[in-house]
Amino acid sequence: QLQASGGGLVQSGGSLRLSCAASGFSLDYYAIGWLRQAPGKEREWVSSISNSGSTIYADSVESRFTISRDNAKNTVYLQMNRLKPEDTAVYYCAAGPRAGVYAYWGQGTLVTVSS
């Protein structure tokens, strides 16, 4: 099971850190992705981190968001800085054998960025 948390309401330009904690299995061997879905829009990929720590980002969040993992805590983080109103969405974390192939999904955490 994956549990996403850390969402909330923040002003434009602010920061939030999302967490994705796993229970019942180890994240050590999984790639983890963060995806988001804004109201009325399709779900879009935000960032991924491989089991070896390699990271990739969508162009829209590059240089503002940082994905990281702490295998000792069985948790992956998404540090979001310089948030924009267009970042408002429900953020989901997912785990799988490689980026883009996800077997486990968290329940989502809402991020709202006010202008």
Can you describe what's shown?
The protein has strands at 2-5, 8-11, 16-22, 31-37, 44-49, 55-57, 65-70, 75-80, 89-96, 104-105, 109-114. The chain has 115 residues and is mainly β. Strands 2, 4, 5, 6, 9, 10 and 11 form a 7-stranded mixed β-sheet that branches. Strand 9 and strand 10 (104-105) form a beta hairpin. The chain is globular, with a radius of gyration of 13 Å.
SSE layout and pairings?
Blueprint: E1 2-5, E2 8-11, E3 16-22, E4 31-37, E5 44-49, E6 55-57, E7 65-70, E8 75-80, E9 89-96, E10 104-105, E11 109-114
Parallel strand pairs: 2-11
Antiparallel strand pairs: 1-3, 3-8, 4-5, 4-9, 5-6, 7-8, 9-10, 9-11
Concise account of the structure shown:
0% of the residues lie in helices and 51% in strands. By secondary structure, it is mainly β.
List keywords for this structure.
single chain; 115 residues; mainly beta; 7-stranded mixed β-sheet; 4-stranded antiparallel β-sheet
Strand content: over 45%
Content-based structural category = mainly beta
Helix-strand pattern, N to C? EEEEEEEEEEE
The rounded distance between the terminal residues' Cα atoms is 34 Å
Poorly predicted residue ranges: none
Residues in helix, %: under 10%
Alpha carbon gyration radius: 13 Å
What is the average of the pLDDT values? Answer: 95
Q: Give the overall form.
A: globular
- What's the tally of helices? 0
Count of DSSP strands:
11
The biggest sheet amounts to: 7 strands, mixed
